[in-house]
Automatic annotation (TrEMBL):
The active site is at 253 (tele-phosphohistidine intermediate). It catalyses: succinate + ATP + CoA = succinyl-CoA + ADP + phosphate; GTP + succinate + CoA = succinyl-CoA + GDP + phosphate. One of its GO terms (biological process) is tricarboxylic acid cycle. This is Succinate--CoA ligase [ADP-forming] subunit alpha. The keyword Magnesium does not apply. The gene is sucD. Residues 4-108 form the CoA-binding domain. Succinyl-CoA synthetase functions in the citric acid cycle (TCA), coupling the hydrolysis of succinyl-CoA to the synthesis of either ATP or GTP and thus represents the only step of substrate-level phosphorylation in the TCA. The alpha subunit of the enzyme binds the substrates coenzyme A and phosphate, while succinate binding and nucleotide specificity is provided by the beta subunit. It comes from Cellulomonas aerilata. Substrate binds at residue 167. Its EC number is 6.2.1.5. CoA binds at residues 17-20, 43, 104-106. Pfam families: CoA_binding, Ligase_CoA. Pathway: Carbohydrate metabolism; tricarboxylic acid cycle; succinate from succinyl-CoA (ligase route): step 1/1. NCBIfam families: PRK05678.1 (NF004230), sucCoAalpha (TIGR01019).
Length: 296
């Protein structure tokens, strides 16, 4: 099985006609994703041809998300639009009743994210991102920018703040495979959290074990540790990026800043280990810990 994204998911791409949208729509189609439409008010009524292994597929462009949903029954939207237009794109998808909205865009103003996240919550819409690589249920569907050919389907659930570390962990554990891998993004405000993914993986009968990748800054990993201790029965291994980060410096993601002893990799590691999570000092060590669990 998979969480949030299955072979039945019907995907529309907001920003499909732009260069990034076209590039990643090509990739999504190649990995078997059911991309049923794009959205661009200026190009409504046209279509875009994408090369596939079997030739090409023509994907229609709609003037609004509402029109796209009405015509296709889409239940997922992935957003590839510039930061200044992201809030409007998310609100449009939420108003159209799309239950899952994946926001790839980097550099979205935090105030905008706070506003559209609150609005999406009030409407019961799940957001993933912004500033994330998306999610993949290997062999079923792939929404975002995660490479589809680095791991097959399997029984590991993966949730990660880092896109690059998502890819590395999938590659390291490719022989075991994944039910779903989710890159939740590293901004200070994100739509789906570690806890949301942990809860879904715990409820998924086909996910046998979970890898959780965090990073310095904030207290998301500490809160996830408390959730794991009280609610998760499946084995969890973890990795916290930033053991060598200097105090007071923002490292990469906007949310990754350490103040005093709060938010350090060591503090997060200790909180996770206190909850029974085995934590690796490197991604490869973390993969080895999962390998031991699944090989036992």
């Amino acid at each position: 099985m998979a969480i949030f994204l299955t072979e039945k998911s019907k995907v529309i791409v907001q920003g499909m006609t732009g260069s990034e949208g076209q590039k990643h729509t090509t990739r999504m189609l190649a990995s078997g994703t059911a991309v049923v439409g794009g959205v661009n008010p200026r190009k409504a009524g046209t279509s875009v041809d994408f090369a596939t292994a079997d030739g090409s597929v023509s994907v229609p462009v709609f003037g609004s998300v509402k029109d796209a949903v009405a015509e296709t029954g889409a239940d997922v939207s992935v957003i590839f639009v510039p930061p200044a237009h992201t809030k409007g794109a998310v609100v449009e998808a939420v108003d159209a009743g799309v239950p899952l909205v994946v926001i790839i865009t980097e550099g979205v103003p935090v105030a905008d994210t706070a506003e559209f996240f609150s609005y999406a919550q009030s409407k019961g819409v799940r957001l993933i991102g912004p500033n994330c690589p998306g999610l993949i249920s290997p062999g079923k569907s792939n929404v975002g920018i995660i490479p589809a050919d680095i791991a097959a389907a399997g029984k590991i659930g993966l949730v990660s703040k880092s896109g690059t570390l998502t890819y590395q962990m999938m590659y390291e554990l490719r022989d075991f495979g994944f039910s779903t891998a989710i890159g939740i993004g590293g901004d200070p405000i994100i739509g789906t959290t570690h806890i949301d993914a942990l809860e879904a993986f715990e409820a998924d009968p086909e996910t046998a074990a979970i890898v959780m990748i965090g990073e310095i800054g904030g207290d998301a990993e500490e809160r996830a540790a408390a959730f794991i201790k009280d609610n998760v029965t499946k084995p969890v291994v973890g990795y916290v990026a930033g053991f060598t980060a200097p105090e007071g410096k923002t490292m990469g993601h906007a949310g990754a800043i350490v103040s005093g002893s709060s938010g350090t990799a060591q503090a997060k590691k200790e909180a996770l280990e206190a909850a029974g999570v085995k934590v690796g000092k490197t991604p490869s060590e973390t993969a080895a810990l999962m390998r031991e669990i699944l090989s036992a």
